[in-house]
Amino acid sequence: MDLGITDKRALVLASSRGLGLGIAEALVAEGVHVMLTGRNEAALKEASERLTAAGPGRAVFAVVDMSAPDAADTVVTAAIDALGGVDILVNNTGGPKPGPITASTGWTDAFDTMVERVISVTNLLLPHMRERGWGRILTLTSSGVEQPIPNLGMSNTLRAALLGWSKTLASEVAGDGVTSNILLPGRIHTDRVDELDANAAKRQGKTPEEVATASRATIPAGRYGKVEEFAAVAAFLVSDKASYVTGAKFRCDGGMIRSI
Question: From which residue to which does any coiled coil extend (predicted)?
Fold first, then answer.
């Protein structure tokens, strides 16, 4: 299927690895010109060169620490300078350290990085999208917003804030040709999932593989998802074909979340 986004311009936050990089790769394969962002310059440089070589889109990058107070202005300016504008925004952030919610600290800093920066970047880009009559905003959260994940209390709480924001935003910009949707990953096999499994193994006195095996057993699909499977869903949601899909949240979880 031709997704109709050849030569569109995308900003993908937190895309030096994992889900963000996977989405960037899927978009470049569709002919989108993408800006990668993150803190690891070497990883970003390697990824941008590899994606551009594969084409047909191209990839550039900006080294940005989203915890910095001026991060939103910095990343938006860099994207506009490099791409000439942004048609597609993929909001993605790293997660906070695992731990019980009763022992969680640093809430204000985590909120600024995981919620406020996402909203600020979006607000800076929205006027141009609305003026052009076309825009896509896709925000990645977590399955924990529907089925809270043990030992990830801060993540469950802060990511849930983006649900109400995205839904409200969708109703305000739909008439201007801009969509806003949420995509929830289940257990997609990334370095982050390996880190969480290792953390759980330490708490439970098990090996990481024992934890991963038990985790896979709770998923109807019987396995962890692949990054490219998740990225394919994301690519559709930011495509021209998905122009009538907005204000929604989607799961890519192999049936893991039990609620309807």
Answer: none
Sequence ranges of the domains in the chain? 9-188+226-252, 189-224
pTM of the model: 0.95
Banded model confidence at residue 187, pLDDT cuts 50, 70, 90: very high
Return d(Cα 138, Cα 53) in angstroms, integer.
26
Looking at every residue in the chain, the average pLDDT score rounds to: 96
HEC assignment per residue over the chain:
CCCCCCCCEEEECCCCCHHHHHHHHHHHHCCCEEEEEECCHHHHHHHHHHHHHHCCCCEEEEECCCCCCCHHHHHHHHHHHHHCCCCEEEECCCCCCCECHHHCCCHHHHHHHHHHHHHHHHHHHHHHHHHHCCEEEEEECCHHHCCCCCCEHHHHHHHHHHHHHHHHHHHHHHHHCEEEEEEEECCECCHHHHHHHHHHHHHHCCCHHHHHHHHHHCCCCCCCECHHHHHHHHHHHCCHHHCCCCCCEEEECCCCCCCC
What is the spatial distance between Cα 180 and Cα 171, in angstroms, rounded to a whole number?
Answer: 9
Report residue 59's pLDDT band, with 50, 70 and 90 as the boundaries. very high
Euclidean distance between CA atoms 234 and 138, whole angstroms = 8
Per-residue pLDDT band at 140 (split at 50, 70, 90): very high
